[in-house]
């Protein structure tokens, strides 16, 4: 298995190669349905899984930033959920319903900066340090000086941010830490392949249904129920022709054409506008974040992550899609009993979406074993 196939890095890579025909520039619109009953790819609202939604304001030197959170539960420890790169808090929707039915806890699923519905002044700063500070600031804004007991749970990039947050003591009431399918060794190995992977994805989708269908058939999310709620947080409607990027490309086209033939510039410009409008009309949805542009931060998310994780002086849980993901430091740490580990086979990289019940069971068992939470509904751990 190649490093790309093993990797877990921006919250996107499936643990197996995409299905034939799913990784090129074609969108899910060109995929053919298999025999049998047609599946429902229509989007589902967040309110079917979370109890409430809140925009948390955080003040800083440059003004106010607003972080979107989705919440459930009213008693017990807070499980603060951090999504993978390119995903959003909605990737935790089905898991939230599953964990709430097993243990007494509160859920706070956060849209990290640059993702989902969070609005910050500098959305391009996705450094581990900045995002870890964001997590601490959101906790402070929500709970003040006396936050409740909190367990950080992060998937992929979010797992790395959870570790950076914990190791920097940015959450004073932290009682536990969970990383889902993120390991420094395989993450660092796969970074060189990430750009090729991102280039292979469709750039646009003709509808939300089309995006949901692609996510399932490509293997990015193997659970249709989760895809129907979480893909809404990954894509957005294309911006109009007056967007800065659109204007820039048109201006450059005008300049180049005027140098060659001034008389033809107007018609060329008109054709560019018409082509652009046609593309947006046919495929009105695109990715909310251009992950390829975040490359300069990838190394900082993952380098040194294993030792940071092992050095956090709190109970720790590592959930993996395959045992082959363990690197040397974590293998030694696991043999020394420094953290609990569980492998959930037959999952893609988005473990908490592909097998939300299994992940909920593992987290619930961890919480009860350490007496952080009480079981409910007759849950047997």
UniProtKB/TrEMBL annotation:
Signal peptide: none annotated. Its EC number is 3.1.1.-. Residues 1-38, 255-280 are annotated as: Disordered. It catalyses: [phosphatase 2A protein]-C-terminal L-leucine methyl ester + H2O = [phosphatase 2A protein]-C-terminal L-leucine + methanol + H(+). It is an enzyme of class 3 (hydrolase). It comes from the Eukaryota. Residues 79-362 form the AB hydrolase-1 domain. GO terms for molecular function: protein methylesterase activity. Residues 255-265 have a biased composition (Acidic residues). Residues 268-280 have a biased composition (Basic and acidic residues). Belongs to the AB hydrolase superfamily. Binds PPP2CA and PPP2CB. Demethylates proteins that have been reversibly carboxymethylated. Demethylates PPP2CB (in vitro) and PPP2CA. Binding to PPP2CA displaces the manganese ion and inactivates the enzyme. This is Protein phosphatase methylesterase 1. It comes from Bos indicus x Bos taurus. The lineage of its organism: Eukaryota, Metazoa, Chordata, Craniata, Vertebrata.
